[in-house]
């Protein structure tokens, strides 16, 4: 079957096993994975989902698309992920009227999900992981995807593994997995029976076949990214740029290798002139996007980050010579 066939089921099972959870439900992309997870967890109209303003806009859009309201808490300036203290403060500001936390593992570095899980338990909230950028990243040896009530991945071409377009919801909860599987397939429970109103968010068999091959290669891709990151960090030591940190218990998978400097815009121009493809993720915080005009948010740490971060190449296809050239270009600038 070219559409939703047995290969998709195999990819779901293999990817869930890779994450150390019981169930996977493949989706058409990472955004629909988030929408599907919210739906399967019964989050929607009237609910509030707390998340980071420093992410790709899909994280917050998916919250709005399920009918819920995104609430933003500020980030930690060193990890760029949700700051657990800011999360608690924000929940208190809302008198506890928050229903879930969506934790994004930005750039491939896991958020502090152990703390966030404690906070979720204390305030009786659901925890969902947006692991779109973090396939295979770990916290205390446990892979991301296994910390939340559900977790969502993207297999977009720029991600650490790809299916062209594609995504996955993973969860240990069989009921949530069943609901998710129905939601991506028109609420179908049997060939001609539809028990819920659902979407067509299915992954194709062709994409799943690519995903199975990519999953086998993922550990080598991650290793290459980590080696490239280590060489960049060593090369950039004692320059004025801040290099990425990796807290002791976390394994970064370097979807992006993001440095920080007050002279970001000048450095970007300099790297462009040297034919080095650097990029800014993200130049505008989500709450500062025109589509979020109606949201009144204070997140000064996220806003400051948008002015100073710069991601330089770290992907598995660059070699030591490329990295030395990047390092020389950055050093030359300063
Ligand atoms: C953090 C984050 N969440 C969600 C998404 C959405 O994934 P997709 O582009 O596959 O819809 C992305 C992908 O760009 C992402 O980086």
Distance between the termini: 56 Å
Percent helix: 25-40%
Largest sheet, in brief, is: 7 strands, mixed
CATH class of the largest domain: Alpha Beta
The percentage of residues in β strands lies in: 15-25%
Can you tell me the CATH topology of the largest domain?
Answer: Aspartate Aminotransferase, domain 2
Supply the CATH architecture of the largest domain. 3-Layer(aba) Sandwich
Corresponding CATH superfamily of the largest domain: Type I PLP-dependent aspartate aminotransferase-like (Major domain)
- How many helical elements? 10
The overall number of domains is: 2
Uncertain runs: none
On the 0 to 100 scale, the average pLDDT is 97
Silhouette = globular
Class per helix and strand makeup: alpha/beta
**Secondary-structure element order, N to C:** HEHEHEHEHEEEEEHEEHEEHHEH
Radius of gyration: 20 Å
Number of strands: 14
- Spatial order of the strands forming the largest sheet: 1-9-8-5-4-2-3
What ligands does this structure carry? pyridoxal-5'-phosphate
InterPro entries: DegT/StrS_aminotransferase (IPR000653), PyrdxlP-dep_Trfase (IPR015424), PyrdxlP-dep_Trfase_major (IPR015421), PyrdxlP-dep_Trfase_small (IPR015422)
Protein name: DegT/DnrJ/EryC1/StrS family aminotransferase
Organism: Natronomonas salsuginis
Keywords: Aminotransferase, Pyridoxal phosphate, Transferase
Account of the 3D structure:
- This protein has 334 residues and is α/β, with parallel strands linked by helices.
- The chain has 2 domains: 6-213, 3-Layer(aba) Sandwich (Aspartate Aminotransferase, domain 2); 222-333, Aspartate Aminotransferase, domain 1.
- The protein is built from 10 helices and 14 strands.
- The protein has helices at 6-19, 30-40, 58-65, 84-93, 113-123, 174-183, 205-236, 264-273, 300-308, 320-333; strands at residues 23-27, 48-51, 69-72, 100-104, 126-130, 138-139, 142-143, 150-154, 167-171, 188-190, 193-194, 250-251, 257-260, 309-312.
- The chain has a 7-stranded mixed beta sheet, with helices on both faces.
- Helix 2 (30-40) crosses helix 3, helix 4 (84-93) runs parallel beside helix 5 (113-123) and helix 7 (205-236) packs across helix 10 (320-333).
- The N and C termini lie far apart (56 Å).
- 50% of the residues are buried.
- The mean pLDDT is 97.
- Pyridoxal-5'-phosphate binds next to helix 2 and helix 3.
- One of its GO terms (biological process) is polysaccharide biosynthetic process.
């Amino acid at each position: 079957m070219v559409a939703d066939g047995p290969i998709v089921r195999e990819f779901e099972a293999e990817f869930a096993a890779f994450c150390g959870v019981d169930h996977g439900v493949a989706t058409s992309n990472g955004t629909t994975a988030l929408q599907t997870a919210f739906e399967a967890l019964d989050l929607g109209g009237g609910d509030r989902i707390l998340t980071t303003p420093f992410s790709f806009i899909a994280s917050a859009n998916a919250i709005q698309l399920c009918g819920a309201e995104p609430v933003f808490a500020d980030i930690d300036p060193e990890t760029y992920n949700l700051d657990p203290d800011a999360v608690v403060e924000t929940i208190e500001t809302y008198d506890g009227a928050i229903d879930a936390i969506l934790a994004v593992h930005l750039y491939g570095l896991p958020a502090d999900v152990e703390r966030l899980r404690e906070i979720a338990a204390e305030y009786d909230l659901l925890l969902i992981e947006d692991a779109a950028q973090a396939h295979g990243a770990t916290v205390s040896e446990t892979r991301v995807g296994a910390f939340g009530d559900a977790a969502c991945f993207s297999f977009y071409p720029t991600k650490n593994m790809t299916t062209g377009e594609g995504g996955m919801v993973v969860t240990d909860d069989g009921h949530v997995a069943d609901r998710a599987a129905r939601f991506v397939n028109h609420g179908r429970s049997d060939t001609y029976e539809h028990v819920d109103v659902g979407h067509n968010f299915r992954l194709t068999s062709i994409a799943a076949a690519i995903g199975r091959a990519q999953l086998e290669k993922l550990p080598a891709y991650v290793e290459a990214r980590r080696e490239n990151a280590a060489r960049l960090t060593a090369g950039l030591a004692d320059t004025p740029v801040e290099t990425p940190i990796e807290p002791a218990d976390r394994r970064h998978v370097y979807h992006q290798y993001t440095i920080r400097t007050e002279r970001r815009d000048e450095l970007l121009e300099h790297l462009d002139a040297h034919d080095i493809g650097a990029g800014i993720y993200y130049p505008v915080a989500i709450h500062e996007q025109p589509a979020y005009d109606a949201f009144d948010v204070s997140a000064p740490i996220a806003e400051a980050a948008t002015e100073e971060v710069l991601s330089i190449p770290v992907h598995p296809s660059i070699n030591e010579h490329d990295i030395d050239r990047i390092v020389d270009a950055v050093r030359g600038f300063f």
